[in-house]
Amino acid sequence: MACIQKTLRGLGVLRQLPRESTVNQTYCRYASSYKYLQVDLDKKTKVAHLTLARKPANSLNCDMMKEIAMATNELDQDRDCKGIIINSCVPNIFSAGLDLTELYQAKELFFQDFWRSLQAMFSTIYGTKVVTMAAIEGHAPAAGCIIALATDYRVMSEGKFNIGLNESMLGIPMNFWVKDAFIATCGQREGERALQLGQMFIPSTALQIGLVDEVVPQELTLPTVQKHMKQWVKVPGGARGLTKSLIRQQAMDNLKAKADEDLLIMTRHMLSQPIQNTIGAYLENMTKKSKR
Ligand SMILES: CCCCCCCCCCC/C=C/C(=O)SCCNC(=O)CCNC(=O)[C@H](O)C(C)(C)COP(=O)(O)OP(=O)(O)OC[C@H]1O[C@@H](n2cnc3c(N)ncnc32)[C@H](O)[C@@H]1OP(=O)(O)O
């Protein structure tokens, strides 16, 4: 979609994307194109599955975020695609959020690329006119939650899983477009509470505050999303897509206009010694935990 490509180019990312739409892609082309994703488009149903596939936890490194943005963009331009379902091939984990090993002691240039890739991943999913849904079959902290927030409909599995934006608990201030996406989904009051407290939610509470739309047994999560997708793609795409754009355009414009400012602020925060110490300590804890 021209609008997304314009935004992405405005963000200064995805320079490697082709300018022209690549229609008539085959099933195979998608399946074999990515290192950290499986992308399968069923030309009959016109629904694609974009499966996050970076074991052990689908933590989002810079390349994976670029791949997600590229795959979404390709599908967005494919006349054979009307809907994208994002799910995970890692049992019990949708995504563990940003790859903290890449954020720890990151060099400034690398961090800039990393952060622009996060902006691009979000804005590509958020801005596509194609229907997007998330099948959240496990944990979805921080950037895992951000992917889900960018979609049109979220179904989460019952179980001892967490979803939410825990940044302030980690001593890191929220940035504007993540805050906006959360408030657009859950409302001002829930946003004020959840984001200041850095709250993580179990599925039933996530449902109560509107962070997810449905909670079902794990084995029914993907089938439930597929059922809803079947309904949504029946709605005439032009009208539905334009309505979606109308609703989301302002947030997209804001992100585009303030992307550089966001990058500057986040570079200052994330590379500061106190936050680097927090990330280091967090990583150490995770290593200790997985050795136990
Ligand atoms: C601290 C910096 C925050 C920056 C905030 C910036 C604010 C701006 C806006 C927001 C942008 C988004 C920020 C983020 O996404 S920061 C990342 C936040 N993520 C988390 O806090 C989750 C961390 N992980 C977990 O809580 C658990 O792993 C999880 C519940 C997801 C799964 O638990 P489980 O017990 O099943 O699995 P393990 O913990 O044993 O993990 C398996 C292996 O995966 C590695 N792992 C997990 N998470 C990450 C990660 N985020 N980055 C890198 N690696 C990760 C873990 O170390 C295990 O590895 P090994 O098997 O090799 O030991």
Automatic annotation (TrEMBL):
GO molecular function: delta(3)-delta(2)-enoyl-CoA isomerase activity
Top-rank taxon, per record: Eukaryota
BP GO annotations: fatty acid beta-oxidation
Location of this chain's protein in the cell: Mitochondrion matrix
Listed GO CC annotations: mitochondrial matrix
Keywords: Acetylation, Fatty acid metabolism, Isomerase, Lipid metabolism, Mitochondrion, Transit peptide
Catalytic activity: (3Z)-dodecenoyl-CoA = (2E)-dodecenoyl-CoA; (3Z)-octenoyl-CoA = (2E)-octenoyl-CoA; (2E)-tetradecenoyl-CoA = (3Z)-tetradecenoyl-CoA; (3Z)-decenoyl-CoA = (2E)-decenoyl-CoA
CDD domains in UniProt: crotonase-like
Associated pathway: Lipid metabolism; fatty acid beta-oxidation
PANTHER family on file: ENOYL-COA DELTA ISOMERASE 1, MITOCHONDRIAL (PTHR11941:SF45), ENOYL-COA HYDRATASE-RELATED (PTHR11941)
Family: Belongs to the enoyl-CoA hydratase/isomerase family.
Subunit-level organization: Homotrimer.
Functional description taken from the UniProt entry: Key enzyme of fatty acid beta-oxidation. Able to isomerize both 3-cis (3Z) and 3-trans (3E) double bonds into the 2-trans (2E) form in a range of enoyl-CoA species, with a preference for (3Z)-enoyl-CoAs over (3E)-enoyl-CoAs. The catalytic efficiency of this enzyme is not affected by the fatty acyl chain length.
Protein name, as recorded: Enoyl-CoA delta isomerase 1, mitochondrial
Organism whose genome encodes this protein: Owenia fusiformis (Polychaete worm)
Source species taxonomy: Eukaryota, Metazoa, Spiralia, Lophotrochozoa, Annelida
